[in-house]
Amino acid sequence: MRRLALSTFVATLLGLALTGCDKEAVDSPAVQQPTTQASTARSAAGDAYPETEEGAKALLQALPKNPPLVLRLKPTTEDYRALFVGDAAAKAERFYAANLWNDAKLTADAGQTQLQVFKATSDEIRSWSPTAEANFPGGYQQAGPHLKPGFTWYRWRYAEPGKDSGMAYDGLVHVNGHWVWTPKPWRALEG
């Protein structure tokens, strides 16, 4: 009986020691597994499109040709918390869950092969700098105080070559090692 109790104790200690060796260990291994898998999938997507303007452009060129790719841009709770100040994070998450991610689409007409990209930092948006004012919809001025500093936000348009109008989108931002899409954030933060 003592051997059985001692064996159980040693096995438990060994299990705890092995769990403690994992840098990403959490209280429950059952909770850890899905988080790690989601993190790995996000990391792979992040590696394909790095946190640069060129990475953003490559992703934006790929989106109309690969519609399911837009679903990889769905922010996590941690992403919302990193991008938005205070309770604005939860408000944005609820809004996008109800109004975007059930039927998220991003399209361009066949002739709209020219990509036009505009960017501004969250600091430029918060202060409503000339760069932000010239390149972003006015609603961003309302959203600015709710954006955390340190991120670059992108707005883009798919247009026919030589034209300045087309399918316009906004709200692409790189956070936590991957790209996310939070379009028209002022709408998410209204009321």
TrEMBL record:
Residues 30-42 have a biased composition (Polar residues). PROSITE patterns: PROKAR_LIPOPROTEIN (PS51257). Residues 27-50 are annotated as: Disordered. It comes from the Bacteria. This is Lipoprotein. It comes from Dactylosporangium siamense.
